[in-house]
Amino acid sequence: MILREDYIEVDGKLLFVKVKGKGDPIIFIHGGPGGSSEYFLPYMEPLAKSYQVIFYDQTGCGKSDRNKDNHYSIKDEINNLEQIRIALNLDKITLFGESWGSILALSYAAKYPFNIHKLILTAVIGLSSVDYQAYKRTLLQKLGLVEKMKLGFYSLHGALGGNVSEKITSLMDPYYVYSLESLTKKQEIKYNYAALTKISKDIEEKYNLLPSIHQLDTLHILIAQGTYDILSPDFISENIIKHLNTAKLVEVKESGHWTILEQPEQMRKLIRTFLEVHETGQ
Questions:
Q1: In this protein, which residues make up the domain named AB hydrolase-1 (predicted)?
Q2: 281 falls within a domain
Q3: Does a structural domain hold residue 58?
Q4: The whole model's pTM is what?
């Protein structure tokens, strides 16, 4: 099986890329913001038996370089993704976006719809900053008073330059899963707090795909949302699907936000089934 790890230079920085297998390409876009592609390992790697699976770390994440000015934005990540596609000499690509990665996948597809074969999204956050605010509000409602106080303290400490990613992760992880037992399988990923805060602010202030939503009208889109996700399948059905004419929503049972961690076999099956469906949508 083909396995290649490399660095691709984009605007003076090196982005880590891992390519495995051969066949139609699937690029996996990690969440966070500020996470890394390690989140997908080893759960999505078995797909390399049938497809060319491509994992990469976004700017300042995982093994990729930080920007010299520590600048992070949705616009830059769209450009990074396009430059990776070009560097790997890919034509049409399937994008798999998880959490914040779903925002990036949708944003890229709205700008470059003709580069897209299919979109697969999970732990979807929405199409605009309004949906993102609903996500944040619902998540905060799940926290008790003590947890809210701790989160506020950690966030302030992080804004002052402190390394708080591990503390925030430890505090918030239980709210992203259906079963706490799932956390025993989770790899510890070091987050880039600057990327997290700056891209989150960018989402709050600028994210709105609704004016360009027509660009997605002809694309085949699968949304796999955990029953117990922050934004429930019902929320997605009522607020997101109505804007995406070709999207199909599948509820992932016994899963919270992290469908890949809690139901990896079901997610792989959904991906394979969706990609094997004839282009007519049968």
A1: 25-263
A2: no
A3: yes
A4: 0.93
Helix axes 145-159, 165-172, angle to 10 degrees: 160
Q: What is the CATH number of the domain that holds 122?
A: 3.40.50.1820
- Whether residue 243 lies inside any domain: the answer is yes
CA distances (Å), 282 to each of 33, 98, 116, 121, in order? Answer: 35, 25, 19, 20
Inter-residue contact 57 to 15 (CB < 8 Å): yes
Print burial letters for 155-182: b (CB count within 10 Å at least 16), e (below 16). eeebeeeeebbebbbebbeeebbbeeeb
Q: For 128-142, 150-164, 210-224, which range has the lowest pLDDT when averaged over its residues? A: 150-164
Domain that holds residue 54: 3-276
Length of the chain as a residue count: 282
Between 79 and 148, residue with greater pLDDT: 79
Any domain includes 257: yes
Q: Is 253 helix (H, G, I), strand (E, B) or coil?
A: coil
Q: What is the rounded average pLDDT of the residues 219-231?
A: 97
Structural domain count, the chain: 1
